[in-house]
Amino acid sequence: MCGIIAYTGKRQAAGILYDGLTRLEYRGYDSAGIAVVNGLRLDYVKRAGRVSAVADARALSGTCGVGHTRWATHGGAEDRNAHPHVCGKFAVVHNGIIENYAVLKRELTDMGHSFSSDTDSETVSHLLSSFYRGDFLSAVRQTVEQLRGSFALCVLCSDFPETIVCVRQKSPLILGRAKDGMLAASDIPALGGCREICVLSDGQIACLTPADCKLFSFSLAPLPCKFTASDLKSCVAEKKGFAHFMRKEISQEGAAVVRTARAFDEAEARRLFGCVPYAEAFSRIFLVGCGTAYHSALTGARLLEETLRIPVAAELASEFCCRKPLLGRHALVLAVSQSGETADTLAAARLAKQKGARLAVLTNAGYSSLARLSDHCFLTEAGVEVGVAATKTYAAQLAFFYALCAFLRGEKAAYLRRFPAIHKKLSEGEEQIRLLAAEIVRARGVYFIGRGADYASALEGSLKLREVSYLPGAGYAAGELKHGSIALMDGDAVVVAVATGKALKEKMRTSVCEVRSRGAKVIAVTPFDDIPADHVLALPACPQKYYPLLTQVPLQLLAYHAALCRGLDPDRPRNLAKSVTVE
User: Is the pTM of this model over 0.70?
Assistant: First the structure.
């Protein structure tokens, strides 16, 4: 979601901030801005649109500043709603949601403050200004005492031209130490020039100067500030000859699967499943996630239940907290999140811990909030993923579940080592997929169906297509077509039928015949040669349980080429963010 970058040091800040914002573009946003302290005044540029809209901000003079990319929540994508928000001597950038902003805004308005935006964030700058009596940290302390919700803040004060004050509460913020100054950012890629990092925890305030960092609690009690060495070169993403990050990242799936399988932490798995009192005490397991992570959890739940023979359920994290799940010391919750900062998944994880359940997490970000909250942390080895629509991280999550279940059976997931060659073979059919994409973009709706393990693949394939091409449609369990959704089938509909289960093949044949008889065109993704479809995307034969890993390759490519056929940028789908850090 929104991105933050801040710098104080020996160099001119604006250029560093602009470069940092370009590295955060993948997160999803609709406006951008930069502010610097110039002498004893604040200079700033902020506009709706891409980061390039504030390219002239690079001319701002000053060695201390903040930058921001905003994803609209309160107020539309307009210049006046862009960050930074400036009031008096203060400039503020904010990620998160100020839940009590309406009350605060009324109180400040009654005190004579005039607001220029529709945002919740602007209240922070006005609170700072109202509390300020010459003590920067004291004004910040009094301000955060008033705030409810989630917030990562970076604050400038024109009376302190070399100081940035940073605050974290339920929204990620990472400090970085470079050879020429100190930085703060909402995500690692923006800290590419740093030698060391320090991940702030909830309830912490950091005071950054060019050569130093001091850490405090919200009551301003001093805290130890520990930086750890980090090689961030691998976090700098480049397209390397590909037209889009999405296509490049699809090509990296084979390597991501092999790395994840090789790096599978058997010692951590043994601690979780093989030691008293936890393993024998589990009576049920919940896998929670959002979007693509939820779809990988659906596959993971099926695999784990077949392996452990205890109830395993995949749950939408946003719904998990809306009911009263049967948690406690006999339950295990495995939270799945690419970024480890997904707000709904974090809320579900906190609920699990509050109720006494054991918490394990699967994430691609070892420094993340979810990783640090967990009792047991497992990492995928997908590398940096820039495309908003998850591709190689989905493949890596599936690889983890295969590796985990193989470990629990006392085996090795040897088939995963073959996946790079299989992926390459599947990608050779890309021209056929491109031609099919040109056909389906004319459809009124595109519907994905599957049974058993293919149901999760259908959901994920539909999500990918909607995310990047904006084509309307949905994913369905094929057996549910007759219970309402078949009313959508006519000559303007396209159905993508995922059919890999031998035991379910005849039922899938029936479903395909039903939709074709009503005029719908059918694309089958299958290893079988007798599915009566209009077009077939053929899969090679493989052990039954591994088909979810194979089917996602042509489905991702179909979504990618559909986006291109519609003249869209698949890396930056509208209204979407890479890391959804607010509920």
Answer: yes
